[in-house]
Amino acid sequence: MSIKLFGHRVHPMLVGFPIGMLGGSVVFDIVHLVTGEGRWADISFWIMGAGVIAGLIAAPFGTIDWLGIPFTTRAKRVGLLHGVAAFLSVGLFAVSWFFRYESPQTPDATAIVLSLVGLILLSIAGWLGGELVFRLGIGVDPTAKIKPQL
User: I need a surface site. Which of 12, 19, 47, 112 has the fewest CB within 10 A?
Assistant: First the structure.
């Protein structure tokens, strides 16, 4: 069971957006901490908000893909860990965004720490997603073959 667009699963198409935006928000937080300029924190705030929305859009497609994985398989357990890590990550970024809402250009330490922990969880979720595809073959077309180079 999966949702496809032009023969490709939708979830992998979408996950690059929250990964890039949420990871980028942490980069802008670091630039803010180094320079002390509030505009970088403001950029982080807006990118983070977009990343949280993108993560919430990608999640249902991943859940549908996970439901199609056979029970009692390692892939089912890895997929569950992947989903939980991604969900917690997006949740931490959402809380960080909420803490910044009143003053986006001057986030407090708690907001920044939540983002850093969120990024660690997001990295774990990404690694587990790679485990699902590259090691366990989830989502790989069974008719796919490696073609020799000419």
Answer: 12
